[in-house]
Write a structure and sequence with these properties.
CATH architecture of one domain: Sandwich
CATH superfamily of one domain: Jelly Rolls
CATH topology of one domain: Jelly Rolls
Distance between the termini: 40 Å
Helix content: 10-25%
Structural class: mainly beta
Shape: globular
Largest sheet: 6 strands, antiparallel
């Protein structure tokens, strides 16, 4: 069981100074408990997270800087700086950085589930196929690919 502790996670230092390379994106864990997990994400140009579902978690993205194209269920849309994206459990979603510049965002998921273990497992894994194969063991199910354009 992981419980919340009173503390400050300093700007982009991450918990215990760690960060993960997730298919070219940088994820920095900012908060982890059983109830939720938050991470800072940097999406370089032309990176994306393919369509997937969290059957038992709600996920959120607060765009700190930049713009991303999204697939939310059957709808394609765009979110920009200051927008909050809500992705309820069970709803397929994907995000794409087609903006031509890096994007930064704060993500969080509730409950945390096995996301911490998943990110540790797929850190520096360069094969999207391998990520898609192991993700269901951690409560994330990837779907067939779609076009990156919103």
């Amino acid at each position: 069981m992981m419980t919340e502790t009173p503390d400050i996670t300093r700007n982009r230092n991450g918990i215990d100074g760690i960060s993960w390379n997730i298919l070219g994106q940088v994820y920095v864990p900012m908060q982890v408990s059983d109830d939720s997990m938050a991470w800072h994400a940097t999406f370089p140009e032309e990176t994306f997270v393919p369509p997937h579902v969290h059957p038992h978690q709600d996920e959120y993205i607060y765009l700190l800087d930049g713009q991303i194209d999204l697939l939310l269920g059957d709808s394609k849309t765009t979110a920009g700086t200051g927008d909050l994206v809500r992705m309820p459990r069970g709803i397929p979603h994907a995000f794409f950085n087609n903006s031509g510049k890096p994007v930064t965002a704060l993500f969080w998921a509730a409950p945390a589930g096995k996301l911490l273990a998943l990110y540790r497992r797929i850190h520096n894994v360069s094969s999207p196929t391998e990520v898609m194969q192991v993700a269901p063991d951690y409560g994330v199910v990837f779907l067939p690919p779609v076009s990156a354009a919103a």
